[in-house]
Structures
1.
Amino acid sequence: MREKHWLKSYCETPAEINADRYGSVMELLEGAMQRYAEKPAFRSFGQTLSYADVDRLSAAFCAYLQHELHVKKGDRIAVMSPNFAAFPVAFLSVARAGAVQVNVNPLYTPRELEHQLNDAGCQTIVIFSGSTPVLAEIIGKTAIKTVITVSPGDALGVALPSPPVDARLQAYVPFVQALDLGRELKRVSVALSGADPLFLQYTGGTTGLSKGATLSHRNLVANTEQFKAMMPGAIRPGEEVIVTAIPLYHIFALMVNFVTYFSVGADNWLVANPRDMDAFVGVLKAARPTVFMGVNTLYAGLTMHPGLKEVDWSRLRLAGGGGSAVVGVVSDRWKAITGTFIREGYGLSETSPVLSFNPVFISDFNGTTGLPLPSTDIRLLDDTGRDVPVGEAGEVCAKGPQVMSGYWEKPEANAAAFTDDGYFRTGDVGVFDAQGFLKIVDRKKDMVIVSGFNVYPNDVEAVASACPGVAECACVGVPDEKTGEAVKLFVVKMPGATVTEAEVVAHCRTGMTAYKVPKLVRFVDTLPKSAVGKILRRELRDVA
């Protein structure tokens, strides 16, 4: 049996966890709602929901789903909302009904939303009122039958300003109305197992169309147990205070900030709009968090805000970073202000998401993503499928109870995504040091990571190529101080075309979420290609 050489660095961390400690995520979370009933669970817009409130509200919305919409076990329900209190209530309701939550970015364009709803086969969507114009554009091309709209004050018992629902949506149910109806109905208990799907977490692919990583209850239970085993000092039952600014529709926040910390009775302060830095820093001042999770972009922005020095950081035990590489200088700035370095981890949507994390005994930023989690096996393979020696680079391939069963209804993609012996191919290239710490050095795939979000070149190129005057194009990632990477697009014009950089960017904005839109456009006479005509993005990166 191949040696896991990182285990010698584990100290007191157990080598294995019990992925079946809880039969489902709901068994884990319902226990928390009972144990911490009177404690604050979520704070949002100056209001507080206790664990008992969340229990009661999610039971009501679950009953509405079951009796009014006839939601059955295995049905897919899309949730498209910022970090409002309605999000955790909706998730717990969906899970209690045995349904599968399809997490959707509220900033998606009509094209992106249409694909995801159709691929997942959703008939119900819970959607922020401000995102309804996007849905209205494409709802007739989907199987959506029921639209449930949410606003900032929903579930909090207060009416807060919210954009109007698009007038083109003839029929919709406000979330508060669904709650009122559900209170009069009795929730039906649904038997759940670890193998039952919990989330479809969409991630890009080489085809340019996103695929749904099927994450089961057991996947999430396992990753929660793994994270707790790695960071016991920052997961104290009933004592933690966490501020959630990274979006809950992102699997990093969903697993760590929500499922893990909810399970131990944490007080979770939700930030709906982290771009409003003044309000965000105000939340940090009020919360005095013990735990904070973010991506490099978020940390970089916060360290530039003068108010960050006014926050009482004396209780902060863990500042975690993921989604994209944490830059050393950003961690240094953060530590200078807060006294705590950023502890980096690594993972993907397909792995629920955490594969490695810097353990509790690490006392400073080290530029690695830490050690593989308990019960996780990571191999670094060369192009022939052989393990590379320690210190050499290879594709990160992972096996563990947090790894997805596969992509939703994509047998061909699944065959390509796993090795013959069942290791998931991440497409990332990493190096192990002698102590077992993993450093991600490159990407085998051409993915670009902008502020922690995956951008796939084929997706960008498919939209940009449709711009009038564009003959062909290719995009790569280039370093960017603010977002980690930015999208740079190389464009070959059609003969006689006068298309400009501004026109290309404007066209892309109509078909893509903002973070995917090229930040830089460069016109060239030709694109480098292989003998069979494949564009060589590697050469473009060399000149970018």
2.
Amino acid sequence: MTGSESLAAKQSFSIEEIAASMTLDDKISQMIMPAVRTWDEEALTDLSHAPKLSEALRAHQYGGIILFSQNVLDPGQVAVLVNQLQENNLENKETTAHIPYFMAADEEGGVVVRLAGGTRMTGSMAVGATGSHAVLNAEKTGQVMGEEMAAAGFNLDFAPDIDVNNNPANPVIRTRSFSDDPDTVSALGCAFAKGVSACGVIPTYKHFPGHGDTSVDSHIGTPSVEKTYEEIQSTELKPFAAAIADGADMIMTAHITFPLIDEEKTFGDGTTKGFYPATMSEKILTQILRGDMRYDGVVVTDALEMDAIRTAGLVPGEPDSAEYRINIARQVILAGADILLIPTDLNSEAAADFYDTYIGSLAEMAQSDAALAERIDESVMRILKLKEKYGILERKKGSDPEEAAAHALWVIGSDAHHDTEMEIARQAITLLKNDSVLPVAAGNQKIVFLGRQKEDAYTIEYAFRQLMEQGLISHKTRIVNLALDTTDGSDDADTVITIDYYYDAAPEENQLRYTEALQEAVKEADAVIGLTKISGLEALSEESEQYQGIARAIEDTHAAGGLFVLLSDSLPYDAARYQDADAIVLAYMGSGLDMDPTQRSDKSGNMGSYNANVVAAIDLMFGDGAFSGTLPVQIPEITETEDGSIAYSDQILYERGFSLKERPGK
């Protein structure tokens, strides 16, 4: 058998025979999924430009590759890159197995997308806001994600996120969660996965056993959930139980500790005691997930490069050293994980040398550790079974990269997908308050729209031009875009719309940008619309320039006799802070506002990943239909504590399911 032939692709061989043909190096490599964001500090977008990386990848039979935004320029380019990576793997002369890769990306939709030239969709919390349509919309979202991933050659999606967002202060999950209700998350997560898998792409449920009730981002620290097993069974574990019952193929772990459930360990320094993150916990991955919950699919870790693992001193060795990472890998495998995601970026010859050491050291350990060797064999069989189920083992040499690129350009970001996106976005927009403001009158008005940042002005202006085309505002409307320094429209227009922004993230200090020109426009306006985006409670504190910008705009608007509309474009909890607004509208997503959808790809003519939610919200605010969205989460009151800071209280201001559904002004 020559090096370019794939034993895995030959139908006469069973997966047992494939596994039997694999060396220990092959088996361990099959459990590793590196990232290739860059090579020698250059973004990796074309494998032919990085021959040393091609060589490094052929040194081992890696189980898969995960791509990130650095790897994506446009749909056609990434389709060629995926093709190159798979073809390069077939040229691996170190093995006769030639097992095709899992080609993976985090394509959740909303704030987490990698196919920048594609369809962003609305994000999970917005889907959860579509009420009785939510299950169907979750499946539609999964299908759009799946179709675009498959068109680019991906076969594995690290989505859906089925964390229950039952902590408003959660710093990392946020609108990636469908709801704070576990039953809703269960139904929508399974529906999303159904849409993805229908396209031949493997969905991954994450982050087990649940990342929703945390106050620390595991990318930079180690969150801890102080709940008993019984408590997480009724909340965090419910969506995973539903996923397993629905036939889940892959589950991703969370780097979170559970002190009331897990067993205390002695850390790497030999004296410090504590608890391993779930990723490293045999109690959580083997006893609970595989034992109690009877899951026998593939378990993939969250990225091992994250600080909750990489720098936490959990095992012997200097954190971030090869010794430390190898000892982490051993513990992760023994705990019950099958795929080690990104032990480190494969981004240089030094990283390639690291992987030689990493894989070789694990092989040496397995030769003298029967339990480790047994676990490796179990994991490899699970991986091969899953690749067989999705037809990944059948890949043969000879795919045409030009055809792959053309297909990707035709599918990704298509009008049909964007139509689905806008349909869901319109159903999601939620009206919480309306004191005779909406719909905003279309004539004889001075209207100011405040973006949070300069880049927001692109989507805002696009939305108003759409309103002009639809006849909802006059085609003579004058648009004065102070943010982008442009002016258009008739000098004698009845309606003048001024677009500006109040927050500048660039300066290290004094990020508030409430200029004299902005203040004058606000004071002269009949109606002011303010876009607000929060990722945590700190953005709503008195010290926050974002809070100061909106608070001043509300004060100036009311002092001049105008009306103020708050448009929340991320977490809806900011509604509790701005109760003095005359109207409150929720859009649930703040990404993609820097893109004007009229600027389509030169290669395909398709739109890219813009923000449909804010466009839909502006349409509805100016009378183009009824608000039909419902709150997918509880919104608690915000109170001031004894030290002067603010906190979420136990009192609920808006109940889950609340909305003003009637058409405003009708």
